[in-house]
Amino acid sequence: MVRKLLCVAVMIAVVAAGAASAQSKKSGPKLYRWVDKQGKVHYDDALPPEAVDQARREFNAATGTVTGSVDRALTPEERAQQEVERKAAEEAAFLAGEQKRQEEIMLASYSTEADLSRSYGERIALLKMTLESTDISIRSLRENLATMLSQASDAELEGRKVMDDRVKAIRELHAEKIKQQAFQVNRRIELVALNSEYERMLARYRELRNPSPAPATPAPSTPPEQPAPDTP
């Protein structure tokens, strides 16, 4: 029994010694290899200050085996560019995820192409009605402004003073006309964008519903317009 325990102890000691020896070889004195700014290759057991930021490889001084490597330090410009690229990649991933989410919502919201076209048709019809009413409003403002300016001009030609309240009214009409014209321009831009969005969404809807290689029927330039809802 004593002999058996002695053999076990010897075996444990041998294994521990081997492990310690291997660890010692692995973590023994290092040898560094780096290339300086002039392109000259250096091998040394210590790194000078000017080599700390250089790319290098590390070797076990006893065995010559490679134990690791270190990339050179990035310049401030390179770090800034790396940050720009990282943010761009994050934004691209976010946009891709957002697009996928929107497509899932679109498929869940519209069972058929007709549903999709009807929805966009209603929105486009409302925009066109808004543009028509704005056109009428601008024409009315322009006519009223022209009448008031003509009356003010006649008064000045006759040597009569244009009353302050009339001057104020003219200015207010002119400002409102400018405001309505800007509103009209924005709605026209919105209408063009909505038509483009409809064409794009319809084409994508067809791709998702019918992922076959057969060419899809071209999307119409505008969806069928739907009657606008009655307004009180």
Structural write-up:
It is built from 4 helices and 4 strands. It is α+β, with helices and mostly antiparallel strands and 232 residues long. It has a 4-stranded antiparallel sheet with strand order 2-1-3-4, with no helix packed on it. α3 runs antiparallel to α4 (164-209). The longest helix is centred in the last third of the chain and has 46 residues, at 164-209.
Q: Give me the Rg, rounded.
A: 40 Å
Number of strands: 4
Low-pLDDT parts are 13-17, 19-26
Q: Estimate percent helicity.
A: 55-70%
Structural class given helices, strands, pairing?
Answer: alpha+beta
Structurally, how many domains make up the residues?
3
Oligomer: single chain
Shape: elongated
Order of helices and strands: HEEEEHHH
Number of helices: 4
Largest sheet: 4 strands, antiparallel
Mean pLDDT: 81
| Strands side by side in the biggest sheet | 2-1-3-4
* N- to C-terminal distance: 105 Å
Characteristic key phrases:
single chain; 232 residues; alpha+beta; four-stranded antiparallel beta sheet; 4 helices; elongated
Fold blueprint:
Blueprint lengths: L1 H25 L3 E6 L5 E4 L11 E5 L5 E5 L5 H34 L3 H45 L6 H46 L23
Antiparallel strand pairs: 1-2, 1-3, 3-4
